Amino acid sequence: MRWLFSRASVIGPAHVLSGLPNQDSVGIRTCRQYWAASVSDGLGSKPFSDVGSKLAVKVVLNSLHDTIDSNDHHKFVTHLYNEWLKQISPLKATDAAATCLAAFGRGGDCVRLVQLGDGAILYRSRGVTSLFTSSDNKFGNETSALGSSRRFSDWSIIDIEIPEKGDGIILMTDGISEDIEPEDFPEFMQSMYESLRRKSTRARNSWLKRELKAWPTPGHSDDKSIAVVFRN
């Protein structure tokens, strides 16, 4: 079996009206049997959050080979954070705060999921859909993020298996995840797989972008980014 990849990001109507950039970012990288996927949501209150989110995805994708033989979760997320802090300079880290959601294919069926901040990661393993829950316990409009969090406990990280055809992972910023009821997650996962499984890579990405631009929730305003990986 091979892996199926797709991604898309669109600017939210509120940012279009305000003349602001898309503060989300998304990316996927593959290398033989290994791969990495990431989405990041720049905190809207920060002046350089779009820069922070783009760098978060870049750091994740560049860390692909670091996860292959790494079983030390603390060491791994420390590496991610330190790389982001180093490369965000000379900007002030707090001015570029961004969430970090990532999935790493580590060879075979093994996948590592990593989350800091809001948004959601869904995964289906052996036909069972689960929500990977962030340890974010901030209040109000605060969220854990690169540039604001300092504790390892702010991160959620788990190693899972994605062994069967139709199993997969969906990473979403909160502009998408907050509009989907939890009881609808399995249907959303299945619908996504059925819609993408027979398309080419270019057709998959175009279809996803059209779906995000035509998002059906009335009054939606946020940027929307998604990365999709399935066994096919």
UniProtKB/TrEMBL annotation:
<dbReference type="InterPro" id="IPR001932">
    <property type="entry name" value="PPM-type_phosphatase-like_dom"/>
</dbReference>
<dbReference type="InterPro" id="IPR036457">
    <property type="entry name" value="PPM-type-like_dom_sf"/>
</dbReference>
<protein>
    <recommendedName>
        <fullName>PPM-type phosphatase domain-containing protein</fullName>
    </recommendedName>
</protein>
<dbReference type="Pfam" id="PF13672">
    <property type="entry name" value="PP2C_2"/>
</dbReference>
<feature type="domain" description="PPM-type phosphatase">
    <location>
        <begin position="4"/>
        <end position="229"/>
    </location>
</feature>
